């Protein structure tokens, strides 16, 4: 992922600026905030350190030198490691206000296993947008106050690597 971000930064004329490719640390940061599902989508009060880190991501200051400013992006992408052994990809589409999880083999983890990892994303991303991006993105309108919609792509919708002979 680092090489993809670096290449996009160095060759910005051929890579779309509408995408921000975040690092695995972003997903871990989302998971570290405690979420109260009975609180109608409201997150518990985060620490100052947490807030500063989220601001750095949203402003494009992190990952250092290669982060994308969310005010200029329509899509956020980051890999996420489940149980230290299985990778999925999060894709937040800000224009359509949804998060899609790309999972190339749904036999490993069921929906009930994935969803707890999605909950912080669908609730905290709108808070980040509201606090750090909304003043520069009037196109988001009222939907920025609502949780993101969630979809999980099936393996048949994801390009697969085939063996070459």
Task: Please tell me about this protein's structure.
By secondary structure, the protein is α/β, with parallel strands linked by helices. It has a single domain, classed as Ubiquitin-related (TATA-Binding Protein, 2-Layer Sandwich). Helix content is 32%, strand content 18%. It is built from four helices and five strands; from the N terminus they run αβααβββαβ. The chain has a five-stranded mixed sheet with strand order 1-2-3-4-5. β4 (98-102), α4 (111-133) and β5 form a beta-alpha-beta unit. The protein starts with a helix and ends in a 12-residue tail after the last strand. Residues 35-39 have low confidence and may be disordered.
DSSP, total strands: 5
- Quickly give the structural class: alpha/beta
Mean pLDDT: 80
Estimated helix fraction:
25-40%
Classified in CATH, the superfamily is Ubiquitin-related
The structural domain count equals: 1
* Cα-to-Cα separation, first versus last residue: 28 Å
User: What is the rounded Rg?
Assistant: 16 Å
- Listing every helix as H and every strand as E from the N terminus to the C terminus, the arrangement reads HEHHEEEHE
Shape: globular
Q: How are the strands of the biggest sheet laid out side by side? A: 1-2-3-4-5
């Amino acid at each position: 992922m680092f090489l993809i971000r670096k290449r996009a930064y160095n060759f910005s004329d051929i890579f779309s600026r509408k995408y921000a490719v975040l690092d695995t640390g972003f997903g871990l940061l989302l998971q570290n905030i405690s979420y109260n599902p009975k609180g109608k989508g409201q997150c518990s009060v985060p620490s100052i350190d947490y807030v500063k880190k989220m601001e750095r991501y949203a402003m494009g200051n992190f990952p250092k030198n290669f982060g994308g400013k969310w005010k200029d992006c329509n899509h956020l992408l980051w890999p996420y490691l489940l149980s230290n052994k299985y990778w999925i990809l999060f894709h937040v589409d800000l224009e359509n206000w949804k998060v899609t999880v790309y999972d190339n083999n749904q036999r490993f983890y069921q929906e009930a296993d994935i969803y707890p990892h999605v909950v912080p994303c669908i609730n905290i991303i709108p808070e980040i947008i509201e606090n750090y991006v909304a003043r520069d993105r009037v196109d988001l309108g009222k939907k920025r106050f609502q949780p993101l919609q969630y979809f999980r792509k099936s393996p048949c919708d994801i390009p697969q690597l085939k063996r070459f002979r």
